[in-house]
Amino acid sequence: MIFRTFVLLAYLLGTTFAASATQWRSRSIYQVLTDRFARTDGSTTAQCEPGFEGFCGGTWSGITQKLDYIQGMGFDAIWISPVVEQVSNPTRAYHGYCAKNIYSLNNHFGSADDLKALAQALHDRGMYLMVDVVPNHMAFDGNATATDYSSFYPFNDRSFFHHVCFITDWTNVTQIQRCWLGGEINPLPDLNTTSPTVRNEWNTWIKSLVSNYSIDGIRVDTAQNIEESFFPSFGKAAGVFALGEVASYYTQYACNYQNYMDGILGYPAYYTSVWFFNDTRATSTNMLYDFYNTSVLCRDTSLVGEFMENHDKPRFASYTDDMSLVKNNIAYVMLKDGIPIIYQGQEQHYKGGNDPLNREAIWLSGYRTDADLYKFIKQMNAIRKMAITKAASMITTYLTSKATVVYYDAHNVAFAKGPASAMVLTVINNNGAGTANYSLRIATSGFAARTRVTELLSCAQMTVASRGSLTLTITGGSPIVLYPDSLLAGTGWCGH
Known about the structure:
Distance between the termini: 11 Å
Number of strands: 18
Largest sheet: 8 strands, parallel
Low-confidence stretches: 1-16
Radius of gyration: 23 Å
């Protein structure tokens, strides 16, 4: 199929970086686990066994060399691992979440010049840089009761931390926010982020980090472990888009954090969609329940980071090899409300299970651009960018419109997004590749009667019936994406 990847004029919103939430809304993000993405020497054979906990050699310079691979899928932003100096234990340090000195960089990933060069290379392409930051805790190699607080910088005194305790009740907010993560051995000492001194230090640090390395956005790790009042001043000091990790199944609990920061990761949608798409016996009830709740409870659904894999969760392909189910889940993540996020390796159909098996080296794939999912993700990004571009001058844009469900049953869901005259209709299912072809009638599609529409993945064309209905054929359990034929002229898509 012929299509053109749309690049928004003047890199979407100009060439000024240190981007706002408004600017991030149109982006799609490729998540990079820095140690496992690309090496400075460009090797595609360097050893990195599945499940290995230690440094495999990925660097910022390696990422810079492989930006063609990322941009080739249509991504215009990357999110990289935390960049600060780590504890000496490599089994904890390779991923970046075990800080020792926040004012020093992780030299396993490269130098300050390497990080600056990565930011510049991204900006030269009109892409954004998001950096993971961890204000909740530091890390210590040893027994919790023997923690050497003087080893941390700048939080080098016991008074900066909560007393030692570990979370035993994940429904107890006080425990979640005041107790330590990790265990008695190799704990993550929990900073007292209610302390004005601690807050001021973090605010000073984040302002300097963003400025020194031309960072466009931050992903805030373990946000649910920090009291909400911490985030307004932290976000203001950063001066860029902040996306918080609130790893909760409960939509109301997660959405509450968006009252204190720009965006949150869509964990409620992650849980319900993965459960639906990895099991052909599952029904759509829970996924739809979250869909509606998120629309009502989140302050701005366009700033929710939607995903189906990350470095903390098992890869989707560890549940099922069914490619139709994978593609349906990807279509759901990338075409609903929110900022879509794809974790490195999804495009190569990596199958690692729980951490650390889900942290495979991407270089061992050879960075294949002919991989089925690489091409499918490229299509999804191109559809989203086309929809954004075509509706940009309308009163209601693609980005500011809320996706709405126009049809559902136990195993099929159709949702529409965008203004009526430039709408994308996405039809997803969890029937699997082995299901027989079947017809699906959508009584109220959202398209105007007699509109000519094109199915963008197969290039099939059809006309909406007199009362706005559509009858579709689902083939091999594949997703369907429909768009007005009149808007395809000059796009190169499906022969236009």
